[in-house]
Amino acid sequence: MSSMELWYTEKQTENFGITMKIKQTMVHEQTDFQELAMIETEEYGNMLVLDGMVMTTVKDEFVYHEMVAHPALFTHPNPENVLVVGGGDGGVIREVLKHPKVKKAVLVEIDGKVIEYSKKYLPSIAGQLDDPRVEVIVNDGYMHIHDHKNTYDVIMVDSTEPVGPAVNLFTKGFYQGIHDALKEDGIFVAQTDNPWFKADLIKSVNRDVKEVFDIVRVYVANIPTYPSGLWTFTMGSKKYDPLAVDESQIPELDTKYYTSRLHKAAFALPKFVEDLTK
């Protein structure tokens, strides 16, 4: 008799999804904020799912976390104080800590359960959250930004899609709040979804951020477990242009995706993506 196969399917749109074979589900619960699952998969290792959306997997997480952190941190000449909004799995924090100039990294995650289960089931991702340079705050990132004017050199928004607790993190008011929470030469970066299914979102975010920041740049990376595999990030900067960085001054870090050569290459967009930023 053949054993029963279990598969997890994420419906990425009404008409499209990805599916993967699973070994077991370790956690499945409704937190105060969202439905949370921690699943062991055959292909991608342990995987965090929030409200039915794949957030991170052990196999491909490095792409997303490196590309949220390093382009901005190598564009800013002295990023001493860094804020990560969301990102309770700790992956962005792990990458931020690879920069010796960073004196303090603050993580503000609304859902403490994400932190708790990531430490338990995603130790390779969440393993740096106890570092002495890190302050972990379980709270609403929107409110934290509102209460911290002129505080941070770099702010990174590592949010889910604009549903549930993250819906406020894609509004013009939020980008203005980020602008005010940054110092006069600060940089902000956010994940801004994919151009295949969420073109309108990329367009509207780009329009809103341009009204708030002088320099706005979109860049891309390949992340297989995210819808379509092509992912965009949007950087808003008060002073420094990521395309003006001297690549020869970027040191080689312990990374698997980001390199000094990729720093500028990531900003070279396919035309249909570039058209969304005009």
Q: Could you characterize the architecture of this molecule?
A:
This protein has 278 residues and is an alpha/beta fold. The chain folds into 2 domains: 6-55, Roll (Spermidine Synthase, Chain: A, domain 2); 61-277, 3-Layer(aba) Sandwich (Rossmann fold), CATH 3.40.50. It has helices at 61-75, 91-96, 112-121, 123-126, 141-146, 172-181, 199-212, 260-265, 271-274; strands at residues 6-13, 16-30, 35-41, 45-50, 53-57, 81-86, 104-109, 134-138, 152-158, 182-191, 215-222, 230-237. The strands form 2 sheets. It has a 7-stranded mixed sheet. The radius of gyration is 18 Å and the shape is globular. The N and C termini lie far apart (58 Å).
Question: Concise description?
Answer:
By secondary structure, the chain is an alpha/beta fold.
Helix and strand arrangement:
Layout: E1 6-13, E2 16-30, E3 35-41, E4 45-50, E5 53-57, H1 61-75, E6 81-86, H2 91-96, E7 104-109, H3 112-121, H4 123-126, E8 134-138, H5 141-146, E9 152-158, H6 172-181, E10 182-191, H7 199-212, E11 215-222, E12 230-237, H8 260-265, H9 271-274
Parallel strand pairs: 6-7, 6-9, 7-8, 9-10
Antiparallel strand pairs: 1-2, 2-3, 3-4, 4-5, 10-12, 11-12
Helix pairs in contact: 6-7
